[in-house]
Amino acid sequence: MSGTPVQVPRSGRPLRGEPVLERAFRVLGAFTEAGEGLALHTLAARAGLPKSTTSRIAAQLTDVGALERLDNGDFVVGLQLLEIASLAPRGHGLRAAALPFMEDLHRVTGQHILLAVRDGDEAVLVERLSARGAAAVKYRVGGRLPLIGTGIGIALLAHAPGRIRKEALAGADDAACVRRLLATVRTDGVCAMTVPNPLRSGPTAMSTVAAPILNRRGDALGALSLVAPDEGGPRTAAVTALRRASLAISRAAGL
Questions:
Q1: pTM of the predicted model as reported, rounded to 2 decimal places
Q2: Rounded CA gap, 39 and 69, in Å?
Q3: Cβ-count burial of 41 within 10 angstroms (0-12 exposed, 13-18 middle, 19+ buried)?
Q4: Which residues, 6 or more positions from 192, have their beta carbon under 8 angstroms from its beta carbon?
Q5: What is d(CA 126, CA 141) in angstroms, rounded to the nearest whole number?
Protein backbone atom coordinates (compact mmCIF):
# COMPACT_ATOMS: atom_id res chain seq x y z
CA MET A 1 0.00 0.00 0.00
CA SER A 2 1.69 3.14 -1.14
CA GLY A 3 -0.94 5.58 0.15
CA THR A 4 -1.25 7.28 -3.25
CA PRO A 5 -4.74 8.81 -3.57
CA VAL A 6 -6.95 6.95 -6.04
CA GLN A 7 -8.61 8.77 -8.91
CA VAL A 8 -12.36 9.00 -8.24
CA PRO A 9 -14.68 8.24 -11.17
CA ARG A 10 -16.76 11.23 -12.31
CA SER A 11 -19.88 9.60 -10.93
CA GLY A 12 -18.32 9.65 -7.46
CA ARG A 13 -19.07 5.94 -7.17
CA PRO A 14 -16.66 3.01 -6.96
CA LEU A 15 -15.83 1.20 -10.17
CA ARG A 16 -18.65 -1.17 -11.07
CA GLY A 17 -17.97 -4.69 -9.92
CA GLU A 18 -14.96 -3.74 -7.80
CA PRO A 19 -14.68 -6.39 -5.05
CA VAL A 20 -15.31 -5.27 -1.48
CA LEU A 21 -11.88 -6.56 -0.45
CA GLU A 22 -10.20 -4.22 -2.96
CA ARG A 23 -12.19 -1.29 -1.60
CA ALA A 24 -11.13 -2.25 1.93
CA PHE A 25 -7.48 -2.19 0.89
CA ARG A 26 -8.01 1.21 -0.72
CA VAL A 27 -9.25 2.45 2.66
CA LEU A 28 -6.26 0.92 4.47
CA GLY A 29 -3.92 2.32 1.83
CA ALA A 30 -5.11 5.84 2.63
CA PHE A 31 -2.84 5.88 5.70
CA THR A 32 0.64 7.12 4.80
CA GLU A 33 2.25 8.19 8.10
CA ALA A 34 2.92 6.29 11.31
CA GLY A 35 0.30 7.06 13.97
CA GLU A 36 -1.75 9.09 11.49
CA GLY A 37 -5.41 9.74 12.35
CA LEU A 38 -7.81 10.45 9.49
CA ALA A 39 -11.27 11.94 9.58
CA LEU A 40 -13.93 10.11 7.55
CA HIS A 41 -14.01 12.72 4.77
CA THR A 42 -10.21 12.58 4.41
CA LEU A 43 -10.26 8.80 4.41
CA ALA A 44 -12.91 8.80 1.67
CA ALA A 45 -11.02 11.35 -0.45
CA ARG A 46 -7.73 9.48 -0.25
CA ALA A 47 -9.37 6.12 -0.95
CA GLY A 48 -11.32 7.55 -3.88
CA LEU A 49 -14.61 6.22 -2.52
CA PRO A 50 -17.95 7.83 -1.62
CA LYS A 51 -18.21 8.88 2.00
CA SER A 52 -21.06 6.43 2.66
CA THR A 53 -19.10 3.51 1.25
CA THR A 54 -16.00 4.50 3.22
CA SER A 55 -18.03 4.79 6.41
CA ARG A 56 -19.44 1.30 5.97
CA ILE A 57 -16.08 -0.29 5.15
CA ALA A 58 -14.27 1.59 7.93
CA ALA A 59 -16.87 0.38 10.43
CA GLN A 60 -16.35 -3.22 9.31
CA LEU A 61 -12.57 -2.84 9.51
CA THR A 62 -12.95 -1.39 13.01
CA ASP A 63 -15.08 -4.36 14.06
CA VAL A 64 -12.28 -6.79 13.14
CA GLY A 65 -9.50 -4.65 14.63
CA ALA A 66 -7.86 -3.55 11.38
CA LEU A 67 -8.80 0.06 12.22
CA GLU A 68 -9.46 1.79 15.52
CA ARG A 69 -11.69 4.81 16.23
CA LEU A 70 -10.36 7.67 18.35
CA ASP A 71 -12.49 9.73 20.73
CA ASN A 72 -12.58 12.58 18.19
CA GLY A 73 -13.97 10.25 15.53
CA ASP A 74 -10.77 9.89 13.49
CA PHE A 75 -9.62 6.47 12.31
CA VAL A 76 -6.16 5.02 12.92
CA VAL A 77 -4.57 1.73 11.88
CA GLY A 78 -5.43 -1.02 14.34
CA LEU A 79 -3.13 -3.42 16.21
CA GLN A 80 -4.66 -6.40 14.41
CA LEU A 81 -2.85 -5.34 11.24
CA LEU A 82 0.46 -5.17 13.11
CA GLU A 83 -0.07 -8.66 14.50
CA ILE A 84 -0.79 -10.08 11.05
CA ALA A 85 1.99 -8.17 9.31
CA SER A 86 4.56 -9.43 11.82
CA LEU A 87 3.96 -12.95 10.47
CA ALA A 88 5.03 -12.08 6.92
CA PRO A 89 7.97 -14.43 6.22
CA ARG A 90 9.73 -12.16 3.73
CA GLY A 91 9.88 -9.38 6.28
CA HIS A 92 9.88 -10.91 9.73
CA GLY A 93 12.08 -13.93 8.96
CA LEU A 94 14.72 -11.83 7.23
CA ARG A 95 14.54 -9.22 9.98
CA ALA A 96 15.25 -11.84 12.65
CA ALA A 97 18.36 -13.00 10.78
CA ALA A 98 19.53 -9.47 10.00
CA LEU A 99 18.93 -7.69 13.30
CA PRO A 100 22.13 -8.75 15.15
CA PHE A 101 24.28 -7.56 12.25
CA MET A 102 22.26 -4.38 11.87
CA GLU A 103 22.79 -3.64 15.56
CA ASP A 104 26.56 -4.07 15.14
CA LEU A 105 26.58 -1.61 12.22
CA HIS A 106 24.36 0.77 14.17
CA ARG A 107 26.71 0.80 17.17
CA VAL A 108 29.80 1.36 15.04
CA THR A 109 28.44 4.02 12.68
CA GLY A 110 25.88 5.87 14.82
CA GLN A 111 23.80 6.36 11.66
CA HIS A 112 20.73 4.89 9.97
CA ILE A 113 20.77 1.19 9.10
CA LEU A 114 17.92 0.09 6.83
CA LEU A 115 16.58 -3.32 5.82
CA ALA A 116 14.16 -3.65 2.91
CA VAL A 117 12.57 -6.22 0.62
CA ARG A 118 11.27 -5.76 -2.90
CA ASP A 119 7.54 -5.79 -3.54
CA GLY A 120 6.91 -5.45 -7.27
CA ASP A 121 8.49 -2.22 -8.46
CA GLU A 122 9.02 -0.77 -4.97
CA ALA A 123 11.08 -1.46 -1.87
CA VAL A 124 9.34 -1.96 1.48
CA LEU A 125 11.27 -1.01 4.61
CA VAL A 126 11.00 -3.80 7.19
CA GLU A 127 13.44 -2.46 9.79
CA ARG A 128 15.33 0.73 10.59
CA LEU A 129 17.82 1.39 13.35
CA SER A 130 18.67 5.05 13.96
CA ALA A 131 20.95 6.73 16.46
CA ARG A 132 19.56 9.67 18.41
CA GLY A 133 22.09 12.07 16.92
CA ALA A 134 21.76 10.84 13.32
CA ALA A 135 20.53 13.27 10.67
CA ALA A 136 16.77 13.21 10.15
CA VAL A 137 15.57 11.11 7.20
CA LYS A 138 12.14 10.41 5.79
CA TYR A 139 12.12 6.64 6.15
CA ARG A 140 9.67 4.61 8.24
CA VAL A 141 9.20 0.91 8.85
CA GLY A 142 6.47 -0.30 6.51
CA GLY A 143 7.04 2.62 4.17
CA ARG A 144 7.75 2.22 0.46
CA LEU A 145 10.76 3.48 -1.43
CA PRO A 146 11.43 3.67 -5.18
CA LEU A 147 13.89 1.24 -6.71
CA ILE A 148 15.45 4.14 -8.60
CA GLY A 149 17.03 6.96 -6.59
CA THR A 150 17.75 5.05 -3.38
CA GLY A 151 20.77 2.89 -2.64
CA ILE A 152 18.69 0.13 -1.11
CA GLY A 153 16.39 0.20 -4.13
CA ILE A 154 19.32 -0.11 -6.53
CA ALA A 155 20.65 -3.09 -4.55
CA LEU A 156 17.28 -4.82 -4.90
CA LEU A 157 16.82 -3.82 -8.54
CA ALA A 158 20.18 -5.35 -9.51
CA HIS A 159 18.80 -8.80 -8.75
CA ALA A 160 15.17 -8.20 -9.78
CA PRO A 161 13.57 -9.91 -12.80
CA GLY A 162 14.53 -8.44 -16.15
CA ARG A 163 11.05 -7.01 -16.70
CA ILE A 164 11.25 -5.01 -13.47
CA ARG A 165 14.69 -3.64 -14.37
CA LYS A 166 13.57 -2.72 -17.87
CA GLU A 167 10.54 -0.81 -16.61
CA ALA A 168 12.59 0.97 -13.93
CA LEU A 169 15.26 2.02 -16.42
CA ALA A 170 12.62 3.30 -18.82
CA GLY A 171 11.51 5.78 -16.17
CA ALA A 172 14.99 6.81 -14.99
CA ASP A 173 16.26 10.34 -15.60
CA ASP A 174 19.79 9.03 -16.07
CA ALA A 175 19.52 5.42 -17.23
CA ALA A 176 23.26 5.17 -17.99
CA CYS A 177 24.14 6.07 -14.39
CA VAL A 178 21.62 3.54 -13.04
CA ARG A 179 23.06 0.82 -15.30
CA ARG A 180 26.54 1.52 -13.93
CA LEU A 181 25.27 1.24 -10.35
CA LEU A 182 23.43 -2.00 -11.13
CA ALA A 183 26.57 -3.44 -12.69
CA THR A 184 28.57 -2.47 -9.60
CA VAL A 185 26.10 -4.27 -7.35
CA ARG A 186 26.27 -7.43 -9.47
CA THR A 187 30.09 -7.47 -9.65
CA ASP A 188 31.10 -6.06 -6.24
CA GLY A 189 28.04 -6.95 -4.17
CA VAL A 190 27.60 -3.36 -2.97
CA CYS A 191 27.04 0.15 -4.31
CA ALA A 192 27.59 3.67 -2.97
CA MET A 193 25.80 6.80 -4.09
CA THR A 194 24.86 10.30 -3.00
CA VAL A 195 21.20 11.29 -2.95
CA PRO A 196 19.42 14.58 -2.15
CA ASN A 197 17.94 14.90 1.32
CA PRO A 198 14.17 15.50 0.87
CA LEU A 199 13.95 17.16 4.28
CA ARG A 200 14.63 20.88 4.53
CA SER A 201 16.37 20.49 7.86
CA GLY A 202 19.78 18.86 8.09
CA PRO A 203 22.35 18.15 5.36
CA THR A 204 21.42 18.80 1.75
CA ALA A 205 22.81 15.46 0.57
CA MET A 206 22.98 11.98 2.06
CA SER A 207 25.44 9.20 1.38
CA THR A 208 23.99 5.72 1.02
CA VAL A 209 25.87 2.44 0.81
CA ALA A 210 23.75 -0.64 0.10
CA ALA A 211 24.21 -4.35 -0.46
CA PRO A 212 21.78 -7.07 -1.53
CA ILE A 213 21.18 -10.09 0.70
CA LEU A 214 21.20 -13.12 -1.59
CA ASN A 215 20.12 -16.73 -1.18
CA ARG A 216 22.05 -19.68 -2.55
CA ARG A 217 20.41 -19.30 -5.97
CA GLY A 218 21.50 -15.68 -6.21
CA ASP A 219 18.01 -14.25 -5.68
CA ALA A 220 17.69 -11.14 -3.50
CA LEU A 221 16.01 -11.88 -0.18
CA GLY A 222 16.32 -8.18 0.65
CA ALA A 223 18.92 -5.44 0.94
CA LEU A 224 20.82 -3.65 3.67
CA SER A 225 21.77 0.02 3.64
CA LEU A 226 23.72 2.60 5.63
CA VAL A 227 22.46 6.18 5.26
CA ALA A 228 24.52 9.09 6.61
CA PRO A 229 25.25 12.75 5.80
CA ASP A 230 27.46 13.05 2.73
CA GLU A 231 30.87 14.35 3.81
CA GLY A 232 32.61 13.83 0.49
CA GLY A 233 35.19 11.44 1.89
CA PRO A 234 36.06 7.85 0.97
CA ARG A 235 33.45 5.19 1.70
CA THR A 236 35.83 2.23 1.76
CA ALA A 237 35.12 1.27 5.38
CA ALA A 238 31.35 1.51 4.92
CA VAL A 239 31.45 -0.50 1.69
CA THR A 240 33.48 -3.26 3.34
CA ALA A 241 31.24 -3.33 6.42
CA LEU A 242 28.01 -3.50 4.39
CA ARG A 243 29.38 -6.24 2.15
CA ARG A 244 30.47 -8.37 5.10
CA ALA A 245 27.17 -7.84 6.91
CA SER A 246 25.09 -8.79 3.86
CA LEU A 247 27.07 -12.02 3.40
CA ALA A 248 26.71 -12.85 7.10
CA ILE A 249 22.95 -12.26 6.97
CA SER A 250 22.69 -14.51 3.90
CA ARG A 251 24.40 -17.30 5.84
CA ALA A 252 22.29 -16.68 8.94
CA ALA A 253 19.06 -16.77 6.92
CA GLY A 254 20.07 -20.21 5.62
CA LEU A 255 18.10 -19.89 2.37
A1: 0.69
A2: 10
A3: exposed
A4: 151, 207, 208, 209, 210, 235, 238, 239
A5: 5
